[in-house]
Amino acid sequence: MSEDVYVIGTDMIRFGRFEDATPPRLAAKAALMALDDCGLSIRDVQAVYSGNCTETMVGQRTLQLIGQTGVPVVNVTNACATGATAFREAWIAIKAGLYDIVLAVGSEKMGKGMLVPKNSGGTPIPSEGLAGSNTMPAVFAQMGMEHSRAYGTTFEQFARVSVKNHHHSTLNPKAMYQKETPLEEVMGSEMMAYPITKLMCSVNVDGSAAAVLCSARKARELGLTGRAVRVRGSGLASDPFSERNLVQADVNTVTRLAARTAYEMASVGPQDVDLVELHDCFATAEICHYENLGLCGEGEGGRFLDSGATTLGGKVPVNMSGGLLSKGHPLGATGIANIYEIVTHLRGEAGARQVEGARIGMTHVVGLGSACAVHILEKV
Amino acid sequence: MSEDVYVIGTDMIRFGRFEDATPPRLAAKAALMALDDCGLSIRDVQAVYSGNCTETMVGQRTLQLIGQTGVPVVNVTNACATGATAFREAWIAIKAGLYDIVLAVGSEKMGKGMLVPKNSGGTPIPSEGLAGSNTMPAVFAQMGMEHSRAYGTTFEQFARVSVKNHHHSTLNPKAMYQKETPLEEVMGSEMMAYPITKLMCSVNVDGSAAAVLCSARKARELGLTGRAVRVRGSGLASDPFSERNLVQADVNTVTRLAARTAYEMASVGPQDVDLVELHDCFATAEICHYENLGLCGEGEGGRFLDSGATTLGGKVPVNMSGGLLSKGHPLGATGIANIYEIVTHLRGEAGARQVEGARIGMTHVVGLGSACAVHILEKV
């Protein structure tokens, strides 16, 4: 097609709860860190894509803090896929030949409480709203129960997802939580919606992440290919139909659609992927996404987890960052934080949690509403 | 550079106040009308860019009403430049070679009252907020007073902008208002912030507009070049500095920056432009933008208006639609409604308000915050 696009710089702040933070302040920190990561300054950036779910003009307000250069700024929102969408639009702008160096930055100031952003303009699943099952834990509990019914997946298997991701996060200094969380603690924590306990829910945190994207040509010219990572595939999808089981439509089907697009564009298959950051907004989702992304066969998600395949040292480690369950989930930042995690492994810079020999990694986010983004990244 | 991009279909609803409307319902109407305009269906659309300032996931919610096909949907916001930004991102996605047919749709459900969107996340000009001058009429009154001080522009000249645009709107069946508004009525209406009276403020209305963009190659294949319009230039800019007169930075300088980019890309100059839809959010702004867009010399805006150059039949008619002052200004829709107006003239389909022989047209929107988008369109 057109120009190859590299990620040449990326970073994220340690996720946490910052009472005085604003989205622009959070975004500014990550943006400066990502620029510093590749030795560039805001003056080198030719366009900015900002992802944030709750406030207005966050991209421009970020530049007020780190330098107003007059470049095009676009603010995007796409529920939980907001950050990934900002990244994708930056990639598209370079592919179009308009720019060589584009900054994608995602940020979110979350409140405590349920994973429903402010100003959401209605429940994500209107027809279920009146039944009281429009809260996120209920939606993803239903997803888990459906998997249990069809394939016999157990409460304990779902809980082990959380144990694994919390274990991974003990190796990630940028994660909100960094402590082992044993199975009995996960299973014994407050029940939100069976089979989801409180420790099987993603963590509401404030956060930000950024990536500097660059045309391959310019990266070579700048001598920045040594730590560069190629964007090999990008898929974005919305619901392909409306008159079916809503969870299936919003989460499973849309993931399969986006993954297929990304795999086809990248000319790789699931067997080529060395590690994955996927959307474990609730523990049940991770097991379903193993199958949605083709990492294992239909109905084998629970056994795939049990085999250790998705744990550090396994065949395809999943959510090495600790995932949304332990690293945390600041909506607009999450998609780019996933990019940061994969890039860090592909560079061989992930320290204690390094997936050895990683050459190809995948990111996945899915927002109810609906938007699913899948990216496939490759070591240059 | 890359693929030529055409606008092959476009339409807008008549702007007005619709108590029961929601942004997705407004957007759905315009989208279907634009598709109908080129004889395509939602099944032909490969990606959707939605512009809306106040609600979430409007693009996806629009597809729930007109057909969920699973295509990528991106929601963008950029203050008053929101619709134009959605249009621009659609153009970029085709230029990148990712898609042949992309829908851009903008919508807004405005309340009555001041032109400050809900959820604005703070005043647009924080440092002026405490002084009470952060309302839009005050900002644009200051812009006008500055022009008066420097060039002697009069209250009456500013008021004549509104007279002209209201006159144009009498010829536009899609405008909110369609009645002549004499000078004495404009000057005698309630004073908002000198030199801006109530009839010199843009009209808060609900509205939507849509455009179907298509690669030149595909348009030829579909036999849709007969009424097609080429996107010849696109400029998007944000504030180039922070420590200066804020109105100058936000409105004038950013317009010049975006216009320069668009002119350079299009390889045309102001003298080549046959008509313009520019951001007359207040009457004072239109006169300043004549100069910002290079339609006349510095300080000559008032006299340029007096000469009749910008009235139907003049050298370069401005705001033939009636502009924001009389057609109305539903934030997320405005940028695409401008595209609709220019395309309609370039096609020779503007009826009583047709600018005869128009071959090149320009659109301009500028949002405080800040974002300015300029597009140059050309008859194929």
Q: Brief overview, please?
A:
Two copies of one chain form a homodimer. The first copy, chain A, has 380 residues and is α/β, with parallel strands linked by helices.
Give a verbal description of the structure.
The structure is a homodimer of 380-residue chains. Chain A has a single domain (5-112, 203-379), classed as Thiolase/Chalcone synthase (Peroxisomal Thiolase, Chain A, domain 1), CATH 3.40.47.10. Chain A has 13 helices and 11 strands. Chain A has helices spanning 23-37, 58-66, 82-95, 126-129, 136-151, 155-169, 183-188, 216-221, 246-266, 283-292, 301-306, 323-326, 331-346; strands at residues 5-12, 47-51, 73-77, 101-108, 191-193, 196-197, 207-215, 229-237, 275-277, 360-367, 371-379. In chain A, the strands form 2 sheets. A 9-stranded mixed sheet of chain A has the order 3-2-4-7-1-8-11-10-9, with helices on both faces. Chain A has a two-stranded antiparallel sheet with strand order 5-6. In chain A, β2, α2 and β3 form a beta-alpha-beta unit. In chain A, α3 packs across α13 (331-346), α5 (136-151) crosses α10 (283-292) and α6 packs across α10. Chain A is globular, with a radius of gyration of 19 Å. Chain A starts with a strand and ends with a strand. β3 (73-77) of chain A pairs antiparallel with β3 of chain B. Chains A, B: This is propanoyl-CoA C-acyltransferase. Chains A, B: Residues 253-378 form the Thiolase C-terminal domain.
